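Progress against Task 2.4 (sequence-to-structure conversion) is shown through the following example record, which the project officer requested during the mid-term review.
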Amino acid sequence: MPPRFLALLAFALTPACVGLSSAVPDAADPESPSGPTIMPMPTFTPPGGGVPGDTGAEDDSGSPGDTDSGGGVPESDNPLAGLRFWVDPDSNAAREAAGASADEAVLWSKIADHSVAKWLGGWSGDVAVTVGGVMDTADAEGAAMAFVVYNLPNRDCGGYSGGGAADTAAYEAWIDGIATGLGGRAAAIVLEPDGLSMMDCLSSSEADDRFALLAYATATLQAAGGVVYLDAGHSAWHPVDEMADLLVQAGVSEADGFALNTSNFEGTDDILAYGGAISALTGGAHFVADTARNGLGPTSDHAWCNPDGRALGLPPTVDTGAPLVDGLLWIKAPGESDGSCNGGPSAGTWWPEYALGLAERAAW
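Structure tokens generated for the chain above:
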């Protein structure tokens, strides 16, 4: 493992060094907190001198190799080690590439050539059939899948991505459907983005119900082959001790770990430091991080909804060289809108102009 990365992890495992304030983000707009000031961090370089990718600086450069799979992390217990995640040949970016000029096709391939997690929610129809079909397709190519499970009751506190299952029984039945579709086959699962980070709108009893639902989903999906990571927000949102406490209450000790930066833009170095600090307070829990759109880090105000001027981050890999970091994944599909804000279409809608900008500004 490169000395720089060892130094970063040593730094990350010291919660007092993260530099997070103890203040709770603005409850009036919990997805867009003003956020604490993050201390300057060492630069992260993948093992073996690989893809420089996101360092939070605008002068990153380099050429990525095939990082969607890896031989695993030596001497670690990474549950994703050795998995190769499926790349959709008919993705929105692949379709754009097929009809583009030669120069633009090169840009589109920066997105199209990499694996992206599939989001599951109320739009997924018969979720057992949907998941089963996707797993069958991946299996046929000797690949694994990554899913985002996003259907908690009172999801997003009624915000841009509001909705979710009608009640506890409906949610548990829906989770059972995903388990049926998995059928004992391995898949990485990011469980309920913002489910822990956005609980201010819940009553005490509703919060208890949410913790119980997350525990149910974790156990059920693991029994069906899922490798489950509880979503834990990002480094500019909740202080380390606050998020660690929420994860403990949600049963992170029974999960495979937690997920960071889902659909967000915080720099990889800050996210790794934040994750290491949380891990130290949660019994050494592992984590994954979303690097799909964080190639230039966040805007100065940590905007979360379609911020201008962002870039693709490190391509996905499970070969991180770090015992705590199971994967750097593309959890949010680059080019899908965050919501009807900053000129964007509704949440989840393909926005080719935004996607092309992400690719154009990528350091690689």
